[in-house]
Fold this protein.
Amino acid sequence: MNRFDLILRGIKAAWPICIGYLPLGFAFGVLAQKAGLDLLDIALMSVLVYAGSSQFIAVAMLSSAAAPLSIILTTFIVNLRHFLMSSSLAVYLHGESRRFLSLFAYGVTDESFAINLVRFREGGWDRYQALAVNQLTNFTWIGSTILGRFAGQFVLAGSYGIDYALSAMFLCLLTFQLRGRIYLLTAIISGAAAVAISLVVSGNSFVIMASLLGATAGFALKRYARRRRGLCAGN
């Protein structure tokens, strides 16, 4: 199979993600326009950040006049998962050049990671196919956010439920992550902590605190479950 056929297979695998990115990116572009960002701001954010959840959070925090440091820390913590995703994919890309790895890593998102990891594990998945998935979804996201910016001037603030897009996206991501009791308990702890901390802490720093607390609790629960299984197996 030549390189063109490999890239074509990658494109075929990427199109479901692209379809999902179109309305989500459009919604981001509209919300960003309502928050006062111009076309260049939105384009640069999509190109340089390229992380839907972080971009939505940044726009929401900008709209609420949050401090720059708070926005930076929040989006950094939200994006920490990319270190884990990149590490998981790195085992399938041994021997690749730094240029290729840099280009590939730039396009890693939750959705492209899921597609590529499954395909790599199944076998018969090439680096160019994986790169095609990353870059096609990247171009789709950037284009849809820019389109949303142009459409934003014709859409009234709060109409069509667009302002609910961020909440809807996170609820969807959360639902897909609930694969067992530990994940459910971690979600409950994180949510309860966010509500409790927000009652006593002003601003948006409660998001960072609740994220750290939830991640720590999830790690502790998973470690406890492994120890318990080990003790049961030993008996």
Q: What stands out?
A: Residues 3-163 form one domain. The CA atoms of residues 47 and 142 lie 7 Å apart. The chain is about 80% helix and 0% strand. The two ends are 52 Å apart (CA to CA).
